[in-house]
């Protein structure tokens, strides 16, 4: 599998579904940081996951509570927008298929699907050689 084992590793990070936003935040962050050359930065008070200085995930804790995160979904943005927790990301990023998801404690958070979206976002911004290390599901 080209040397990257994140897809088998993600099962160890979290259950398939959680309703705890703190656990979801940590699971999404851990999954993203497990991707090749991913790093964590903290611009604008949020957590940004980047590969070679390009962001592929923005994670945050909105003032109203819970979590929010944004990912670039060139292949599945339309599908993502069918979910009540998803909307186009602001600041003009929605035009480039960036989707923001918001969850509050008690919401069912489908981690497996979100991990797939993080991987898709990574592949969309990573250099081709790194993107090729992360197989499409």
Give the SSE map:
Layout: H1 6-13, E1 17-18, H2 21-33, E2 38-41, E3 47-51, E4 54-60, E5 67-72, H3 77-80, E6 86-88, E7 98-103, E8 109-110, H4 111-125, H5 128-131
Antiparallel strand pairs: 1-8, 2-3, 3-4, 4-5, 5-7, 6-7
Helix pairs in contact: 2-4
Mean pLDDT: 87
CATH topology: Aspartate Aminotransferase, domain 1
State Rg. Answer: 14 Å
Q: What is the number of E strands?
A: 8
Side-by-side strand order of the widest sheet: 2-3-4-5-7-6
Which CATH C-level class is it?
Alpha Beta
CATH architecture annotation name: Alpha-Beta Complex
Shape: globular
Can you describe this structure?
- With 137 residues, this protein is an alpha+beta fold.
- The chain has a single domain, classed as Alpha-Beta Complex (Aspartate Aminotransferase, domain 1), CATH 3.90.1150.
- 32% of the residues lie in helices and 26% in strands.
- The protein is built from 5 helices and 8 strands; from the N terminus they run H-E-H-E-E-E-E-H-E-E-E-H-H.
- The strands form 2 sheets. It has a 6-stranded antiparallel sheet. It has a two-stranded antiparallel sheet with strand order 1-8.
- Helix 2 packs parallel to helix 4.
- The longest helix has 15 residues.
- It is globular.
- The two termini are 12 Å apart.
- The N terminus is likely disordered.
């Amino acid at each position: 599998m080209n040397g990257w084992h994140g897809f088998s590793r993600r099962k160890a990070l979290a259950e398939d579904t959680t309703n705890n936003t703190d656990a979801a935040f940590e699971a999404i962050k851990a999954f993203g940081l497990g991707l090749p050359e991913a790093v964590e930065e903290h611009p604008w008070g949020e957590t940004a996951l980047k590969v070679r200085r390009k962001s592929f995930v923005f994670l945050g804790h909105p003032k109203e509570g819970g979590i929010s995160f944004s990912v670039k979904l060139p292949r599945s943005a339309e599908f993502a927008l069918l979910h009540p927790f998803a909307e186009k990301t602001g600041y003009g990023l929605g035009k480039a298929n960036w989707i923001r998801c918001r969850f509050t404690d008690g919401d069912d958070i489908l981690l497996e699907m979100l991990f797939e979206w993080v991987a898709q976002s990574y592949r969309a911004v990573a250099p081709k050689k790194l993107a090729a290390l992360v197989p499409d599901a």
